[in-house]
Structure formats: C-alpha cells, structure tokens
Write a sequence for this structure.
C-alpha cells in the first residue's frame, strides 16, 4: 500500500438485506463466484456476523479442500482447544464440515516475536484472494483497534475497553476476556484482491456510517476500505440506519 493508494477513494458497494440469513446468502454467492473464478486463498473472520455465511458454506455442495484459509486473529493466552479460542470457533462453525487444504490461525500461545514473523510469512506466501470481515462497534477490523497504524502488519494488539465489553458475552466473567490478541495488520487486510464485510444490528450503525461516509483515519480502522477498489458491504437496515 503506497501513499498514493491511501489517497485514492473508491465507492464501496453496499447491499442492504432484510436479515443476517439473507446477508449470509448474498455473501455466499460472492464467495462461490470467487472460488469458481479461481480464488485459492480465503481470508476468514470470526464473530457472529460471518456465521450465516459459514452456515451456507457448510450446507453447500462446494468442495473447499483445495483452498487455503488464513484467519485474521486470535486471542493471546488461549490454547487452541479453549472453548472461546478462534481455533475452536472456526472448527465448530466451518472446518469440521468443510475441510480446507491448509488453515492458518495465529497461535495464541506463541512467542510474540516468532509468531508475528511466522504469520507475516504465511500471508506473504499465500496472498489473499478474498477477505471476509466483520466490524467492531468501534470500527475495528480483525483486532486492529482505533489508532492502529494503517501500515502495520501482524502484531499483538491491546484490546480496548469497548472490545472487551462487546466480547465479554462469550466469557463467564469480564476478567476472563483476554486483554491482548494477535491480529493481521490493516496493510495485509487491504492487500486482499476482494473484500466482503458483513454487519448487522443497530449497535453497528455508527461504525458503518463512519466507515463509508467519514474521513479516512486510523481512528476509524475500517475507513481504510474506502481506498480499496473491490469491497462489498452487506448490512441489515438497522446497521444501515445512519447512512
Ligand atoms: C471480534 C473480532 C472481529 C469481529 C468483531 C465483531 O472483535 N476480532 O473480527 O468483526 O468481533 O463481532 P460480531 O460479528 O460478533 O459483532
């Protein structure tokens, strides 16, 4: 990503759906099209927003066993088999039904420096054809919180209070929510040829509005998508209500 690319603005393609099930079907159509057109590497996301898409994928006839997947992030400190790890999430929602040729997810127990190097090598070796994204209520993508430099690659991110608050529903107590995560950087996310971002519900409306209509700023990580020429945003009416 060069300074020139950072300045170029593109219109984001916005699809407003009735509910997340319809959103999942729309996203699935785009994934199918990309796979049929030869996509080899899918960038995958966790969170509730991509689940309807993963349901469509798991119930489809499509074979994914020739594809590589690279996930965005993982909580630091959680072993792979922890119920709230993103390894467990991906296995439960997709990989147990649809095996991929190779799947990559950061190792939450990995040594910081080595894990960052390893993951950057993975992303370099397998350029992402299609990146799936959700968005945080504070407009984070992956775990790139507001203020993360756009040009940063894989790194360890300190989670903001807003993210800990939003994600505590998955843990027994707020203290159990990890405070750090390994995340693919924004630079790598926008290197994907094609991007699909899904968001549902009123709590995402502000982030969606700032991402699409606000200034491109590191304070709104998802605003970087305005510089990408192939982004589809799938939102329900509530998430689109401030557009
Ligand atoms: C987490 C993930 C993000 C995800 C966000 C929103 O913080 N790291 O990748 O987009 O949650 O999750 P949800 O889709 O459940 O609202």
């Amino acid at each position: 990503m060069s300074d020139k690319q950072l300045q170029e603005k593109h219109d984001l393609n916005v699809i407003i759906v009735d509910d997340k099930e319809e959103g999942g079907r729309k996203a699935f159509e785009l994934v199918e099209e990309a796979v049929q057109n030869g996509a080899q590497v899918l960038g995958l996301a966790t969170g509730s927003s991509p689940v309807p898409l993963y349901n469509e994928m798991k119930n489809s006839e499509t074979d994914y066993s020739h594809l590589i997947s690279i996930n965005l992030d993982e909580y630091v400190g959680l072993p792979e088999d922890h119920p709230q790890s993103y390894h467990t999430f991906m296995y439960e929602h997709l990989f147990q039904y649809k095996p991929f040729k190779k799947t990559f997810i950061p190792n939450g127990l990995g040594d910081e420096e080595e894990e960052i190097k390893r993951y950057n090598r993975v992303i370099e070796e397998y350029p992402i054809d299609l990146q799936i994204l959700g968005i945080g209520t504070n407009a984070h993508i992956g775990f790139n919180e507001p203020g993360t430099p756009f040009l940063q690659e894989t790194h360890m991110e300190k989670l903001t209070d807003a993210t800990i608050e939003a994600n505590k529903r998955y843990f027994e107590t707020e203290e159990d929510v990890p405070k750090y995560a390994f995340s693919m950087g924004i630079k790598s996310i926008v290197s994907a040829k094609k991007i699909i971002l899904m968001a549902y519900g009123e709590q995402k409306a502000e982030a969606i509005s700032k991402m699409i209509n606000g200034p491109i700023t590191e304070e709104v990580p998802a605003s970087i998508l305005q510089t990408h020429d192939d982004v589809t945003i799938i939102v329900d009416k509530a998430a689109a209500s401030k557009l």
